[in-house]
Design goal:
- This protein is α/β, with parallel strands linked by helices.
- It has a single domain, classed as NADP-dependent oxidoreductase domain (TIM Barrel), CATH 3.20.20.
- The strands form 2 sheets. An 8-stranded parallel beta sheet has the order 3-4-5-6-7-8-9-10. It has a two-stranded antiparallel sheet with strand order 1-2.
- The longest helix is centred in the middle third of the chain and has 15 residues.
- It is globular.
- It starts with 6 loop residues before the first strand and ends in a 19-residue tail after the last helix.
- Belongs to the aldo/keto reductase family.
């Protein structure tokens, strides 16, 4: 069974922990820093931020203050939609690095395929990787058409596709496509922002394992082989969310969850947008 220390090797050789902390809506400031410091202290090794979240500076400060070896932490950030294009991407990533006060970011993703400048944005990230400012280049919210678009443009396969994934949003076709192409699947909104906590089957499965519904949903992602990044700013829940390595869902649990309606996107869904280059 995987543990908090388990890592997945990406198609470019970079290693990513299979569990980490999501940071969307972690409001910048002293409270954010305390949440981050707490997570790092109890062993979180993967932090998922984005230019859009406006907390890259908090992440950098917490890493420094924590005293944890920088090399043991995997920082993920994302180029926001309005920073697409070659020059704007380079400028925005350099700005992220100065906010982080880090020499490099482990993984940079294109946040979403919203523009006709994905190819230029991607090329900029690849060049920043050559410069050593980024170790790995991936994407987020890319559908099959977008991944094919990058391939047809002759570009290297992204290391990661980060997409919404939980028992009510399984995206099997896209997940299978990523796996066929050697793209690591990273799932966001693993606990569906709490919107499915009243589901009677989830409640029963949680009782069976003496776990919370949130823990069952996070375990579902791990059992599926996804990198998972539940977000919490609350120390009790940051702790609770990592206590998922001492149990596994049964085949019957998985059978029940496989039968759940598969249509609940709780974030936005750019995966269905057309490819515009
Ligand atoms: N690439 C993208 O476009 C994209 C989109 C969305 C998300 N993401 C990434 O994925 C991460 C996770 O997604 P998300 O933050 O949207 O949703 P999520 O992790 O599914 O849910 C987070 C919500 O659940 C609450 N929560 C956390 N642990 C809990 C627990 N054990 N019991 C009850 N409630 C709990 C949190 O509140 P408290 O903080 O108060 O605990 C927060 O309101 C994000 O933070 C971000 O890093 C990426």
């Amino acid at each position: 069974m995987s543990s908090l220390e388990s890592v997945i090797e990406l198609n470019d050789g970079v290693k990513i922990p299979n569990f980490g902390l999501g940071l969307y809506l972690l409001e910048s400031g002293s409270a954010a820093e305390l949440s981050l410091l707490y997570a790092l202290k109890i062993g979180y090794k993967l932090l998922d931020t984005a230019q859009f979240y406006q907390n890259e500076a908090d992440v950098g400060r917490a890493i420094k203050k924590s005293g944890v070896d920088r090399k043991s932490i995997c920082v993920v950030s994302k180029v926001w939609d309005t920073n697409h294009g070659y020059e704007a991407t380079v400028k925005s990533v350099k700005n992220s690095l100065s906010l982080f006060q880090l020499d490099y970011v482990d993984i940079f993703l294109i946040h979403s395929p919203v523009s006709g400048s994905n190819v230029e944005t991607y090329k900029a990230l690849l060049d920043l990787k050559k410069e050593g400012l980024i170790k790995s280049v991936g994407v987020s919210n890319f559908g099959i058409q977008h991944l094919k678009g990058l391939e047809e443009a002759g570009l290297p396969t992204p290391s990661i596709n980060q997409i919404e994934l939980h028992p009510f949003c399984k995206r099997e076709k896209l997940v299978n496509y990523c796996r066929e192409k050697g793209i690591c699947v990273m799932g966001y909104c693993p606990i569906a922002r709490g919107k499915c906590f009243n589901d009677p089957d989830l409640i029963n499965i949680a009782k069976e394992h003496n776990k919370s519904v949130a823990q069952v949903m996070i375990r579902w992602s791990l059992d599926k082989g996804f990198v998972t990044i539940p977000k919490s700013s609350n120390t009790k829940r940051i702790q609770e969310n990592m206590e998922v390595f001492d149990f596994k869902l049964t085949e019957e649990n998985h059978r029940i969850l496989a039968g759940k309606p598969d249509n609940s996107v709780v974030s936005r869904d750019p995966t269905t947008l057309p490819w515009e280059g």
